[in-house]
Every structure is written in C-alpha cells, then in structure tokens.
Amino acid sequence: MSAALTKLLTTLATQGIKKAAPQAKRVMPVPKKEGLSSLPEVDESVTAYKAFNKTPKEKQDWRDVNLQLTKEKVANQLGITDLKEIKKINVKDRHRNPELEEITRGFDEGKITREKFLELRDSIKPLNQYGTVPELRSLEDIFLSMKQGEGKDLSIIGVNKNIKPNTQVESRFDIDAYSKYDNYVASIKDPSGMSYSNAVYLKDIDFIFKPDKAFNIGKGKAKNPFATIKGKWQNAEPEDIQKFAKEKINSEDWIEVGFDPASRTGFYNRSSGQLLKSAEEVIQVGPMILAKKVKPFSPKELEKFAIELKTKEKVLPHEQGGMIQRNPNPYEAKAI
The pTM is what? Predict the structure, then answer.
C-alpha cells in the first residue's frame, strides 16, 4: 500500500470517528419509593358511621351475627350442640385455661413448689413463635368490632383521626374485640383521647405492665386492661407497616414479643421467655408484636416486681425460660 493511500485511509478513519453520532444517553429507571408512606391528613369532624356508610342498626346486626359465629366456633371446640347452651357461652372464657389457673393458685398457696409450677406451666403453655405476619383486618372491621355508646363516635386512625408523628402514645389490644370477633384491634391512647387502628409502628419503647395484676389473672380473676406499649407514634400506612413487618420478621435485630398474663406476667421474648423492659422500635400487626433491639430486665431490676404469695414468700414474676414450640395454628385467637 502506497504512503499516500495509507494517509488517505487514516484521515477518513479519523474523520469517521469525529463525525460519528453520539451514543444515546441511557435513561435510568426512576427508583421506587422506599420506606413507609405517611398517612394523609383526614377530616376529624366526619363521624365513623358516615365514613363507612353504616347505620347504627347495620353495625349492631354485624356484631350480633359475628358474635353468634364466635359462640358456634367455641361450641364446636367444646363439643356443645344444644342451642340454649351455645347462647349462654361467655366468649371471654375461651382464652382461660382452668388447669393452669388451678396450678397457679396451688403455687400461690404453697401446695406446689416453684420448680413444679414452672414445669407444669411450660408443659401447658410452652413458648411459641408465629413465624409469619398475619393479614390485615380492614379498618371497617375495626369500626364494627369496637363497642360505642349511644351518641358517641369512634376515632379510627387514617379515617377520622390524625396523630402527629412522634406523639407519645400507649398501645394495647382491645379485649372485647379479640374475644368476641377474633379481631386484634390496637387501642391507641394519646393526649387527645383513645383511637383505633389495625397496625402500629412505634419508636423509643417502654413496656408497661404490673406483674401482681397479671398474677391475679393467672389465678382466674377477670381480665382488665393494665399493660401497654409506650412509644412515639410513627404515622405510617397500615399496608406499609405490614410489608415492613414481613421484611423484618427474620431479621437478626428483631424478635417476636408476647404478653400472656396467665403464664408470664409481662411482655416477654417469645424465644427466650425473658421479661422485656424496652426496645428501639415496635411493629404491631394483628396479634403479632415485633420489637427491634429489645432490652430485658436484669435480675436486680426484676426485684421491684417481686410477687408476694399467700405463703408470704416473695418470688420474681414467673421467672423466664421454658420450652420453645412453633405455633401450628399461629393466628387462632388467644392471649398474646
């Protein structure tokens, strides 16, 4: 190839590079929004009846029908077929365990040693974990499940109630709602009053409970509200909270938390049985409670909770520990 031809080809190649059309700029996909969406502000002047387009009669009809269904469910479990007997069923009793109550009374009266009591308790109510996150009940179900007096309204968060982010609140489960309708309604108390939701996300947690009252329930006395989860309200959409729980349920930093006054007197680690003092964060979805970086009580701190038995002996609240068992029917209504 002549020197002239080589020079010509080199020139053309160089010109081709300079004149080549620039590559199309890559369009990056818009990233999906991560994290939890905030609840929009709602009109608090709207009544719950209007928000759900229900009349008081329609609500009462729903409650009557669903209470009867619960009674029939209990009757089926107990083998009761007589319609009159089914009607008499007190659904609140279905969470009681007469055998454990008798054992607890025996322990209180000194008829059963502490070691034997713990052995029997753990065989009747072993530690268990849900392992999965439950489905959300609808906010309409929350409204229908909750009793309200004549002329009074219900405040449903995200429907006709707003709570500002980081407001200090206390959360607990409503006893009637899960006893009568298998609906774990979160009752939220803030400075303005009581409101309700199907999912909760809180930060900077303190677990509040009274072991002496729990011990009395363990002996068979009626349940009444006394234990709450205290923390700062995070104003998130319930569906996002549920999704968040599914992401965290197997995380190393998060554990399942239970509360069963009939057997453990306070909020406890479902895996170890330790009584819990605080946590960084808590998620509640249905009956499930997940907590991040929990802090258990030390033996020294537990001394202030010592329960005095009828024998005048003082014991720490039911002690920790116990067998671990995966719950085969995780969301059947029961103490949490």
Answer: 0.82
